[in-house]
Write a structure and sequence with these properties.
- By secondary structure, this protein is mainly β.
- The chain is built from 2 helices and 50 strands.
- The strands form 13 sheets. Strands 35, 36, 38, 39 and 40 form a 5-stranded antiparallel beta sheet that branches. Strands 43, 44, 46, 47 and 48 form a 5-stranded antiparallel beta sheet that branches. A 4-stranded antiparallel beta sheet has the order 1-32-31-30, with no helix packed on it.
- It starts with a helix and ends in an 8-residue tail after the last strand.
- The N terminus and C terminus are likely disordered.
Length: 619
């Protein structure tokens, strides 16, 4: 029995230990959110970025030259590293924030056309014409390689559980476990150059050179359905959020299917479609054609607009969150097109563009050409927000909020523009990246206007709104303060300060205290009425008052205290009227007394030149 108890207790302790360990290790570390983790920008290949690119300007760019063509499309990590394959057989990793420093290059045995894909931990997966699928860590060290029987030009897709899907020219679709072992393969009997798209339910969609679009089970590789077209499918499918599947074919058509493989519609162009479609927020589908046009069609397959270039459009478009469409053409130009189909800008890439764009952390657009040039098109920042100005004692203080859109890189600093009404707008000074500025190089009484713009690697951004203020110092003290007490009130009057501080006054502060106490603010008075009547007082209490003047620079010195004791009307009676009445009453009483005593005789007077004496007196 004791042994059984011991076993039960031990089992319970082991279970608790296992449960505790599981609870600790089940918490996944934070993983980066890559802005463009692979071809198409997301597992569904919609080509839609969450980054705002509205300030990207084709004239603002960095570039890195290479001796071999870039045929792969770039991927961009959360730490601003750009990964791209080259005709030289290497996968290169560049650090964009340090002006395209080559962090590392990994050599394969063949041309790298496959676009790299990043998992949440920063590991990189890509294929090579040497028939292998490679997995590298973020430092460029090989984790494993998976061999197929044909060149791997398809770009890998990565599922939520880390399984890597890729097509091979050997005619198979492969699912490879995170450790590099094969999970399954599905034969198609025709080479595969299309890249897979992964649906929210894990279904893998991929096209074949035989003209079929396949829907395969992500878990086991079984065929769910097949849709046949009239030409080779080099275009990679895109799965929109509403579940529609879009893809192009060399039969000149772009197709729309539902998730069960049912046909919805097609749109016909004048050339084969090798470009992979991208899907905007409003379900508008953008794609290129070998007829030299970029097309925009709605969710019903109706043409919205088409944009003409000077060569086939094989590259797939990338969409900024603001609706701008980026793509390249065989005519050697990179294009930015507004959502209404009008051209925003174009830039000469110096060679054919078959690489599809990628959009980085700050809205930077990366594109490459067969000339071996990798471009970063940098967006300038939007305008600083909520610019305010305040007047300090002899200084002007500016404050603002950072731009909503920093453009193609971190904010490096700000230009402060300053001018007076008599001058032209000029750059006053440059400051590092902060959101305030103190201007103490001002003339008192002069009005100054200000604007602020932000600067990043791409250049100067948009201007803020204009603010202005007049430089000032605090005013002198008011003059001639007088107090006039009354019944339950004290009236104060004064004159403005002799020196106003360079600007008009805003107001006056009136302070009051009782003997032995601190002064407190009792009123704020308009600068136009230098007087105040204090009715919140008690009669026969002595109060002390002072006044200060206020202008935009602040509060000036207070006056010397003046005292006042409010008094009721009864006090006036007691102090003046009553004593008068008392004295008058005494005089009247004395007169009456005198009259009663002496009234029977004639009062003393002069007549006939003789003085009549009082009774008892003789002449």
């Amino acid at each position: 029995m004791n042994a059984l108890r011991i076993l039960l207790v031990a089992g319970l302790l082991v279970s608790m230990s296992v449960f505790s360990t599981h609870m600790v290790t089940s918490e996944e570390p934070d993983v980066p959110d890559h802005p463009w983790p692979g071809f198409g920008g997301n597992p569904g290949n919609t080509g839609l970025s969450t980054r705002f690119t509205g300030q990207v300007d084709g004239r603002n760019h960095r570039s890195w030259g290479h001796t071999h063509p870039f045929l792969s499309s770039p991927a961009v990590s959360a730490d601003s590293r750009v990964f791209i394959g080259s005709d030289d057989g290497y996968l290169h990793a560049f650090d964009y924030d340090t002006n395209f420093v080559n962090r590392w290059s990994f050599e394969t045995g063949g041309t790298v056309v496959s676009s790299p894909a990043l998992d949440p931990h920063g590991n990189v997966y890509f294929g090579s014409n040497d028939r292998n699928l490679y997995a590298l860590d973020s430092g460029g060290r090989k984790l494993w390689e998976f061999e197929t029987r044909g060149a791997v030009t398809s770009s890998p897709g990565i599922s939520a559980d880390g399984v890597v899907y890729v097509g091979s020219r050997d005619g198979h679709v492969y699912a490879v476990n995170p450790d590099g072992t094969e999970r399954w393969s599905h034969p198609t009997n025709s080479p595969i150059t299309s890249s897979p798209a992964i649906g929210v339910d894990g279904t893998v969609y991929i096209g074949t050179s035989g003209g079929d679009l396949l829907a395969l089970s992500g878990s086991g590789g079984s065929l769910r359905w097949r849709f046949e077209t009239g030409g080779e499918i080099h275009s990679s499918p895109a799965v929109s959020p509403n579940g529609t599947i879009y893809f192009g074919s060399s039969d000149h058509k772009i197709y729309a299917l539902n998730l069960r493989g049912g046909y919805l519609w097609h749109f016909t162009t004048d050339g084969p479609i090798r470009s992979s479609p991208s899907v905007g927020k409003d379900e508008v589908v953008y794609f290129g054609s070998d007829d030299g046009h970029l097309y925009a069609v709605d969710e019903r397959g109706e043409l919205i607009w088409k944009f003409s270039t000077g060569g086939p459009v094989e590259a797939s478009p990338a969409l900024g969150a603001d609706g701008t469409v980026y793509f390249g053409s065989h005519d050697g130009f990179a294009y930015a097109v507004n959502s209404d189909g009008t051209e925003k800008w174009r830039t000469d890439m110096g060679g054919t563009v078959v690489s599809s764009p990628a959009i980085g952390c700050h809205g930077t657009v990366f594109m490459a050409s067969t000339r071996g040039m990798l471009f970063a098109f940098i967006g300038v920042p939007s305008a600083p927000r909520d610019l305010t100005i305040s007047v300090d004692d002899g200084r002007l203080l500016l404050n603002w909020e950072h731009p909503l859109d920093v453009g193609g890189g971190e904010i490096q600093g700000y230009w402060i523009y300053r001018w007076t009404p008599q001058d032209n707008i000029t750059r006053h000074t440059w400051i590092p990246d902060r959101s305030s500025y103190i201007d103490d190089e001002v003339t008192i009484g002069e009005t100054y206007n200000y604007m602020v713009s932000a600067i990043n690697y791409g250049g100067e951004g948009l201007m803020s709104e204009i603010v202005n203020a007049t430089a000032a110092v605090v005013p002198g003290e008011p003059r001639g303060l007088e107090s006039h007490p009354g019944d339950s009130m004290v009236r104060l009057v004064w004159e403005p300060p002799e020196y106003l501080g360079g600007v008009d006054l805003d107001e006056y502060f009136v302070y009051r205290r009782e003997k032995g106490n601190e002064s407190v603010l009792v009123a704020i008075v308009s600068s136009h009425t230098p007087e105040y009547e204090d009715k919140n007082v008690t009669n026969r209490v002595t109060y002390y008052y002072s006044v200060s003047a206020v202008n935009p620079a602040g509060e000036g010195a207070s006056t010397q205290d003046v005292s006042a004791m409010p008094t009721t009307s009864y006090s006036v009676v007691y102090c003046f009227v009553l004593p008068t009445l008392i004295v008058s009453s005494i005089l009247i009483a004395w007169f009456i007394h005198w009259y009663r005593r002496w009234g029977r005789y004639d009062p003393p007077s002069f007549y006939d030149g003789y003085y009549r004496k009082r009774p008892g007196n003789r002449k």
